[in-house]
Automatic annotation (TrEMBL):
It comes from the Bacteria. InterPro entries: HNH_nuc (IPR003615). GO terms for molecular function: endonuclease activity. This is 5-methylcytosine-specific restriction endonuclease McrA. SMART domains: HNHc. Keywords: Endonuclease, Hydrolase, Nuclease. Residues 213-267 form the HNH nuclease domain.
Length: 328
């Protein structure tokens, strides 16, 4: 059976959008062999890491396991949704509940509030489960055409055609995945309604605080608003960290997409894409960060390329972010 595979090679290098949609439709539906929410969590993990792939469309198992662990921690611990599988309890539930009990972590703790040591231990255990129950199984469901993987080297490569497809239809895929994941959890957990669950599934990815990024940006740049250039006054509430390209599209926090903003600009921009001339400014800003060659900054700029944020900007417009913001 495919879930036992330790190596999976791509059967085809090129797929049309129509072929990819056909396979995605089966994976997302109840026709899929995989009878747990794992398939949705893997798709969400891929979407969260779309802009972290290297030039060969590769990701590490650790990148995927981080996103996977965060999804399930917040569903299981914060929202008490322990049934994630038809049949016996999903292994990821046991791992997370044991970790919570061992470290006596309160249920209101989100994944991002966990200390680094606990996060690393949890990600390591979740990665083992993904090797056993996720990579091979969903590889089979996608007809061996969406990605390649190898457990020994922890190598994961997205089919370039699928990668471009996911960029092109990212917003739609997020909504479809959230809906189907919520629908399955509603059946498994006997919760009041799918609307109740959709809110929990949709809010999984967001980090609780951008304060660490604020400190890095303040250490390297003048205390001024990226958009209007005005000086930012002292005080925690006077500085905002804004996702240059909206978080609702990127669904992750990347230093190269974060800027310091005043309250006025941040409030008026909200979930909009800034006018294109700001794009040159953030590219120049990111070049300055890379040129500093400081370890703590370079770790947060892994796989950053100018063309990546340009691609992100263009695809966000194609995904419906076509109301362009400019400071009045």
């Amino acid at each position: 059976m495919s879930y036992k595979l330790k190596i999976g090679e791509l059967k085809e290098g090129y797929l049309t959008d129509e072929e990819i949609w056909r396979i995605f439709t089966i994976v997302l539906s109840s026709k899929s062999v995989k009878s747990s929410t794992y398939k949705y969590a893997l798709i969400k993990s891929l979407i969260e890491n779309l802009y972290q792939v290297n030039e060969r469309c590769e990701l590490t198992y650790d990148q995927l396991a981080y996103a996977f662990a965060k999804i399930y921690w917040n569903l299981i611990v914060k929202h008490n949704l322990e049934n994630q599988n038809r049949g016996k309890k999903a292994k990821v539930v046991t791992i997370i509940k044991e970790m919570q009990w061992r470290h006596q972590i309160p249920s209101d703790f989100s994944f991002d509030k966990l200390n680094a040591h606990v996060q690393v231990k949890l990600i390591t255990e979740v990665k083992k489960t993904m090797k056993e129950n996720v990579f091979g199984a969903i590889y089979g469901d996608t007809r061996e055409k969406f990605y390649a993987f190898e457990h020994k080297s922890e190598y994961f490569k997205i089919n370039p055609s699928v990668y471009r497809f996911m960029l092109k239809y990212q917003r739609l895929l997020v909504n479809l995945t959230n809906y189907h994941m919520a629908a399955m959890m509603e059946q498994l957990n006997e919760v009041p309604s799918i609307n109740y669950l959709l809110g929990k599934v949709e809010s999984i990815a967001k980090r609780s605080s951008l304060r660490p990024f604020e400190n890095i940006l303040l250490n390297h740049f003048e205390r001024s608003c990226f958009y209007c250039g005005k000086a930012l006054p002292d005080g925690k509430r006077q500085i905002q960290v804004d996702h240059f390209i909206p978080w609702s599209f990127v669904q992750s926090d990347q230093l190269w997409n974060l800027v310091l903003s005043c309250n006025t600009c941040n409030s008026s921009k909200r979930d909009k894409l800034p006018k294109k001339y700001y794009l040159d400014n953030i590219i120049n800003r990111n070049e300055e960060l890379v040129d500093k060659q400081e370890e703590n900054v370079m770790n947060l700029m892994t796989n950053y390329k100018d063309k990546k944020i340009i691609l992100l900007y263009d695809y966000s417009i194609k995904n419906g972010f076509d109301t362009i913001w400019e400071r009045g």
